[in-house]
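User: I'm writing a tutorial on reading structure tokens. Could you give me a worked example: one chain, its sequence, then its tokens, then a sentence or two explaining what the tokens reveal?
Assistant: Sure. Here is the example chain.
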Amino acid sequence: MRISTRGEYGLRAMLDLAIHGGEEPVPLKQIAVRQGISEHYLEQLMGGLRKAGLVTSVRGAQGGYRLAADAREMTAGQILRVLEGSGNVPFGEPASAAPSPDPLTRCATRHLWQQLAGRINELLDSVSLADLLAAAEEARAREGAYMYHI
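And here are its predicted structure tokens:
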């Protein structure tokens, strides 16, 4: 599976909005600093996400971006499809030095890759931004990242 930096960074920016967003828009500069992503690159990503209706923008000194819907309603699949520019999340047959000349084996392996791509898309469509945040919080709690001192 090939997910470019567009998909990775865009998903991280959307998660940042889910965490830090709310009534007030989040300035792009803050997202860039927290995520370690170029502000210029984020502008490009957010433009595509805005056109797709996944984020809204507010201009001005107090401007920024916010999620266009609740984090429970946005899936990783929706976000990645917008950013990766295709109907499905990109997935291709493995590169091979010598493709099989046998049509039967070529057809059989293509069937496997298509099934795998379908399952990956099903998973991505079943995971919301809220699910990702909840999983991260659970992982952080299990790893003992929360330290309580009295």
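What the tokens reveal: The chain has a mean pLDDT of 86. Residues 5-142 form a domain with the Arc Repressor Mutant, subunit A fold (CATH 1.10.10.10).
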